[in-house]
Amino acid sequence: MQVAHSFLAILAGFIAVIGFTGIATALLKRFAPDLMRDHAKPDPLAMAIHVGLNLAFSLLGGYVTARFAQSKPLVHALMLAIVVLLLSAISAVQMKDRQPIYYLLILTAVPPLAVLAGGILRLHQMGLHW
Prior knowledge:
Blueprint: H1 2-31, H2 44-68, H3 73-94, H4 101-126
């Protein structure tokens, strides 16, 4: 039962990251289509918004995972961070010809670190310090 609960805690954090990112992207495409053009020159404002949203939603995902973990919340957040890192790296490889390399490196490095920060935030809320 512990393994299933751990899986569900990580899944809840993953859904938070992916779900909120997808919703925000859809809203931006709907209400600010000029920022979200697919085949246009990269816009610094759009890149900053995207990095900021990824940061916020990854932080939330790490917090959610640590919140629902029965034990070792930071280990669960680390597992989610590894999944997010792998998916970010795959996405960066797929977009390598369409986006600047520094932007792709930021999008690969920031979300996993934010997931860990969300787990640490939950630890501090619990009164635990790592």
